[in-house]
Amino acid sequence: MEQNFANMQQHFQKEISVLKDIITEKDSKISKLEETLEARRTTLEKANERLLQLEVRDRRHNLILHGLPKEKRGDSLEMKVRS
Questions:
Q1: What is the SS3 assignment for 4-70?
Q2: Whole-number Å distance between alpha carbons of 53 and 74
Q3: DSSP conformation class of 1
Q4: Are 36 and 26 in contact (CB under 8 A)?
Q5: Coiled-coil intervals in this record (predicted)?
């Protein structure tokens, strides 16, 4: 009976060890996914900033093409960017 108990205890310890390894592996994968997600967020933020810069440049260019008075260009552009 004691031998059976010892065998069961040893078996459960092995199972616990395997489960701990699985959890560690999954935690590692989650950490890598979080790092990837953060990198993609940063890339997206930079792309959005660049897009805004290009839109502002395009609006300025359009204002120049339409011959608006120079003193009104800044105000019109600021109003468009704010909206």
A1: HHHHHHHHHHHHHHHHHHHHHHHHHHHHHHHHHHHHHHHHHHHHHHHHHHHHHHHHHHHHHHCCCCH
A2: 15
A3: -
A4: no
A5: 30-57
Does the global pTM surpass 0.70?
Answer: no
Distance between CA atoms of residues 25 and 18, nearest Å: 11
Contacting residues for 64 by C-beta, under 8 A, at least 6 apart: 73
* Residue pLDDT, tens place only, 26-67: 999 999 999 999 999 999 999 999 999 999 998 888 877 776
What is the rounded average pLDDT of the residues 1-27?
A: 95
